[in-house]
Amino acid sequence: MLIAVGALAALGLLLGVILSMAARFLSVETDPLADELEQMLPNLQCGQCGFVGCRPAAEALSAGETDVTLCPPGGVALAAKLAEKLHVEIDLSQMDHEPLVAFVHEENCIGCTKCILVCPTDCIIGAPKKLHTVIVSACVGGAACLEVCPTDCIEMVPVTVKEESVQSWNWPKPRSPQSTSSELATRSVDR
After folding, report:
1. Closest Cα to residue 110, out of 152, 81, 165?
2. Is residue 15 part of a domain?
């Protein structure tokens, strides 16, 4: 029994050393600028930019093969950050300044689930033969759902971006139990 445990421990140690040496000698050098640009991108892998994912888009940006306005979900803010990072000037007038999201007109939806299957961020929820709706906070405005909808019940609409913070949060103050009972007593006396 002790021999088997020792043999497995020695085998594990030997394989660990081989793997660590392979990781060191066979490692692939990556472009540090592409790594930074990939971190700046939203990493949604939506494909709206024309690339398979955000990593190939970051590599194309670092090589100067594409424009910094390539990412629709990132919008104007991301394009400005990328331009600053790459030290290039851009014209933001050609970009949409208002983000778009999908909206399902429920009266026309037949529940075919074709939109659910093509959505890259799984923001459309519903079931077969049931109504579908869009989770606005997860939608990146890819419009892939528009092309497959047989009833044209999906529309891209502008979303109003409302920034909430602790300073702007508005929570109505609840009424105290005493004021509620006194209001009820006043109403019953008035009748």
Report:
1. 152
2. no
Model confidence band, residue 172 (pLDDT cutoffs 50, 70, 90):
low
Structure confidence at residue 27 as a pLDDT band (50, 70, 90):
confident
Q: What integer is the mean pLDDT of 44-63?
A: 88
Q: Is residue 119 part of a domain?
A: yes
pLDDT > 90? residue 8 = yes
Q: How many domains is the chain built from?
A: 2
Number of alpha carbons in the 13 Å side-chain half-sphere of residue 109: 24
Of 138 and 21, more confident: 21
Main-chain phi, psi angles of 8, to 5 degrees: -65, -40
Tens-place pLDDT, residues 95-141: 766 778 899 998 889 999 999 999 888 889 988 888 889 988 888 88
186 lies in a domain? no
Cβ(158)–Cβ(100) below 8 Å? yes
CA distance 29 to 13: 27
For residue 142, give the CATH number of its domain: 3.30.70.20
Contacting residues for 189 by C-beta, under 8 A, at least 6 apart: none
Residues 105 and 141 in one domain: yes
Domain interval for residue 70: 32-94
Handedness of CA 40, 42, 43, 49 (dihedral sign): negative
Establish if 180 belongs to a structural domain. Answer: no
